Amino acid sequence: MMKDAVIEHGESSMAPLVAASVAAGGVGRAVSIADVFLRFLAIVATIGSAVSMGTTNETLPFFTQFIQFEAKYSDLPSFTFFVAANAVVCTYLVLSIPLSIVHIVRPRAHYSRLILVFFDAAMLALLTAGASAAAAIVYLAHKGNVRANWFAICQQFDSFCERISGSLIGSFAAMVLLIALIFLSALALARRH
Amino acid sequence: MMKDAVIEHGESSMAPLVAASVAAGGVGRAVSIADVFLRFLAIVATIGSAVSMGTTNETLPFFTQFIQFEAKYSDLPSFTFFVAANAVVCTYLVLSIPLSIVHIVRPRAHYSRLILVFFDAAMLALLTAGASAAAAIVYLAHKGNVRANWFAICQQFDSFCERISGSLIGSFAAMVLLIALIFLSALALARRH
């Protein structure tokens, strides 16, 4: 009778601990799988943006008529920065995939998650800087600015403007994905105990 | 003798746990104090940027000679966005200070840290977008662009250009501080156990 009571007490005090531990491991694993998935989406988005912006000069044959007004992404430094930022973030995301997969196997790892949070935040800043600088120039190309005497160039370069505007979408999607990735890593760190 | 051994065993198994617990609390508190400090620095940086950009039209009296070329931050939408982004981030940082102070008192809080990580990341994206869009236009104002037929306006508006260039510094400093804040929150979450 006494022994049973002890065992029962022992079980009842262990059970919530074990359950919490399993739940934490489950949350960590689910978060890690979502992490890998979102990283793949972000890779696709940044590649799409970089390629779409980077190939704009080749795909518009009618620009050959205007010899001095041929429009390329490399004519504007902001667009070159945009392509570079997307390429760097994409490379980082590819390199971070193995670490992210390790987290599925070991959901309780925390220092490696810390490293990912730091680099994710830095890459979020880099990608946002590239996307936003390009967006500022795209806006100027569409609207121009009367006060600064800068004319809208999209009247002449209609298809060019459409393409560069479209290529921003991938970067802005990747920004949202990176914010989600930072949050997921923090969630995994918070639930790990 | 038996009793002594049991107590000794009990102490030796408890001691590392208590030490680890105290150390984790200490790290959490130190991180929370650094968090509040960095938030104050970021508030000063974003206020400085917003005010410096926002007051540029008032402090350059020689612009009154040029009636149609008077330079204000509100002439360019990117600068208006820059001021708005800095103001929003500054407001958020002021509102987050009380929560950050709560973390000094309760270093083990984790869901509130999770909320801070998420909003810090979102504010990092907003601030970077504002700073980068303004930087792209500042670059254009300094260098112009031959291909797009946009002329550099900094030859005429020298002081204006100096001020708007200078006002970017605060935003870029605040960006670095926000990345540090995200890392610190993640560090506090990782060490909390």
Automatic annotation (TrEMBL), chains A, B:
Residue intervals of the Casparian strip membrane protein domain: 29-177
Transmembrane segment boundaries: 36-56, 76-102, 114-141, 168-190
Keywords recorded for this protein, A-Z: Cell membrane, Cell wall biogenesis/degradation, Membrane, Transmembrane, Transmembrane helix
Bilayer disposition of the protein: Multi-pass membrane protein
Pfam families: CASP_dom
DNA-binding found in the keyword field: no
Biological-process GO terms, alphabetical: cell wall organization
Domain of life of the native organism: Eukaryota
InterPro entries, per the entry: CASP/CASPL, CASP_dom, CASPL
Primary location class: membrane
GO cellular component, one term: plasma membrane
Subcellular location: Cell membrane
PANTHER family documented for this protein: CASP-LIKE PROTEIN, CASP-LIKE PROTEIN 1U1
NCBIfam families: A_tha_TIGR01569
Family: Belongs to the Casparian strip membrane proteins (CASP) family.
Function: Regulates membrane-cell wall junctions and localized cell wall deposition. Required for establishment of the Casparian strip membrane domain (CSD) and the subsequent formation of Casparian strips, a cell wall modification of the root endodermis that determines an apoplastic barrier between the intraorganismal apoplasm and the extraorganismal apoplasm and prevents lateral diffusion.
Subunit structure: Homodimer and heterodimers.
Protein name: CASP-like protein
Species assigned in the record: Zea mays (Maize)
Gene name tied to this protein: LOC103646362
